[in-house]
Amino acid sequence: MGTSRVLCPSRAMIILTVLASAAFLANAEVARVELSAPVDVLGGKAFGSAGAYQKSSGKVYFSVDPLNSHNKPVVDIDKAPRDANGRVTFSADVYVLAPKDPAQGNGVALFDVPNRGRKMTLQVFNHAPNTPDPSSAAEFGDGFLMQHGFTLVWVGWQFDTPKRGGLLGIDVPVASENGHPVAGRLTISFTPNTAAPKSSLDDVRTYPPVDPASSENRLTVRKGQYGTPQIIPRGQWHFDSPGNGQDPPVVALDGGFEPGMIYELSYQAQGPVLAGLGFAALRDVASAIKYQHGALGTVRYAYVFGLSQSGRFLRDFLYGGFNADEQDRKVFDGAMPHIAAAARGDYNGRFAQPNGQTPYTASLFPFLDLPQRDPITGKTDGLLSHMSRDTVPKIFYTDSSTEYWGGGRSAALTHTTLDGREDAKVPDNVRIYLLAGTQHAPVPFPPSAGTSQQRANPNDYTWALRALLVSMDRWVRDGVAPPDSRHPSLADHTLVPQKSLKFPALPGVHSPLAIPGGYRADLPGPPSAHPLPFLVPDVDADGNERSGIRLPDLAVPLATYAGWNFRSPSIGAPDDIVPLTGSYIPFALTKAEREQNHDPRLSIEERYASRDKYLELVKDAASKLAQERYVLSEDIAGIVDRASAQWDYLAHGAAGGAK
């Protein structure tokens, strides 16, 4: 996108200024920014009143004070190399989409925390395809975010993102002591889906083993999360490739890996990077945009959105107190951790593994925003306890059904006590929303089964996220309270212990009562030693959830929409769930078909007199949600169109069979 250069503060497109003054550098975490020349988006096309947009990409260079109290939460910052000024330096990728004339924007910088280096907000809010460098009209979707005038900013935070394909990452220093890289033991878990003889350990590409042939290296295998690990004799496996920092280590096992089994490898590594500087990078770019003179002066507010991995990153960001910059000023005015549930992640530890998707390992105390006491350790802590009242943002937690069910993310613990016996108080600055009957990330329609026993869940919750972003904006700028939290609760019996759930017996569908609950990953001992309460949303006779934001797919259903799905026998372990995947189980088309299949759910013909009547009910349900501000009025037509496509799909005989 043009020749790289340092931008001049006089340009209207500038997001960050170059800080040339040594005196200013003493107080500035963003040392300089190098961006490509701005490129007009879609040839200068106007996006409503926000006008034309431009895009730029490049690098941000940071210089942080390791002695500043706001940087001390970064693990090993005391072991980082320092420059002549005693500061820690590093750099990160940055990408910006902004109104060509800042005065025409809405005055808000919306940060999208990259997920494994990928940009997500255009896909989520604009209904666009995922792409590293949006260029065509289709890649900007329906232009929702631009129509609303947001300045969009992406900052790389993940140190092990591959440097290819436009992915955004960060370059951070290595921790060392007495001139030598810090060493320590590293453990990684993985579950293969095929019987391949080798497994590539992408999550630890930065940490090759010190001695690949060491007898101390250990590989174990177990069946299921609660299975007993069995040591695989050292002579039966080896490092086929130790990795080199960019290419990951590769492990080979005699006879091949067994699909569906859980393997755990541990070995000695060295040179852990300061992964927690990713928090500082996000914090300091947002701070620079809000507070540095000449840096897009019309932007008064900053919001941040993170999805899945990056949503858990945001929870850790808040827990670490990073929403205050080095001058103790509020960074983000609004935060939207999405599909993160009660989980955090390995983003700020020695030998951090931010890509890790092993189930249950993200279950870390504390779970609630407000302080709670851990009866096991005696510690009292809360997710927002490490920020002052002046630096706490307004927060929306949004979760799919999957976050209540699979992988131990234990979404219910964001609004219940640790013992699971009582509903907990939610702070006034927080709203919690269950996007009922949805999976972690909705799949395109029509869905397929893939490696699951049922078709994946296509219930599209992004309609609600668009409305909630508008509500967040009004809450921050105008003080207009957002819609009330909508999530299951113990008080009204819409949140129930998993084992007491009365899910209907559906033909060919594995019962969700077989799914194991989560456990405390932050405590020593076997998983069975510290189980977490397993609380899930209650369901109706169709198996659809009764609480939360019930979008028209659920309010006027043609199927059962669940937040769980089991592994296909073709990939092994069919009694285990596919992480982050839900189920779409259509109703029978006719009463005769229902009775033949012994399906307890009413058929489509028994529910709706006609296609037109069904679409009328969908429109009514969407209109009610719009009145309650859980969807936008402008999106009702799109919701009805999608429902129409689903009716036609099922009417042509697609209901039968998992495929």
Describe this entry's structure for a reader.
The chain is of the alpha+beta class. Among the domains are: 4-172 and 275-356, Rossmann fold, CATH 3.40.50; 183-270, Sandwich (Immunoglobulin-like), CATH 2.60.40. The chain has helices at residues 22-25, 121-125, 144-147, 277-291, 309-319, 402-405, 462-478, 552-555, 591-597, 604-607, 611-627, 636-654, and strands spanning 4-5, 30-36, 39-40, 53-64, 88-99, 108-112, 151-155, 170-171, 176-177, 180-181, 183-190, 198-200, 218-222, 230-231, 237-241, 250-253, 262-270, 301-307, 334-338, 372-373, 380-381, 394-400, 430-435, 495-497, 535-537, 559-562, 583-586. The strands form seven sheets. Strands 1, 2, 3, 4, 5, 6, 7, 8, 18, 19, 22 and 23 form a twelve-stranded mixed β-sheet that branches. The protein has a four-stranded antiparallel β-sheet with strand order 11-17-13-14, with no helix packed on it. It is globular. Residues 1-27 have low confidence and may be disordered.
Task: Summarize it.
This protein is α+β, with helices and mostly antiparallel strands. It has helices at 22-25, 121-125, 144-147, 277-291, 309-319, 402-405, 462-478, 552-555, 591-597, 604-607, 611-627, 636-654, and strands at residues 4-5, 30-36, 39-40, 53-64, 88-99, 108-112, 151-155, 170-171, 176-177, 180-181, 183-190, 198-200, 218-222, 230-231, 237-241, 250-253, 262-270, 301-307, 334-338, 372-373, 380-381, 394-400, 430-435, 495-497, 535-537, 559-562, 583-586.
